[in-house]
Amino acid sequence: MTTHPSQPAPERRASGPASSEPLDALPEPGRPAGAPGREKPAAAPERDKGGQTQVITRERAEPASLPVTDANDHRLAMLSYLGVPFLGPMIPLGVYLTRRRGSAFVRSHSAQALNLSITALLYTVCILILATMLALDSVVVALVVGVALAAALWLATLGYVILAGSRANRGHSYRIPGWLCATLVR
Question: Of the chain's two ends, which shows fewer C-beta atoms within 10 Å, N or C?
Answer without folding.
Answer: N
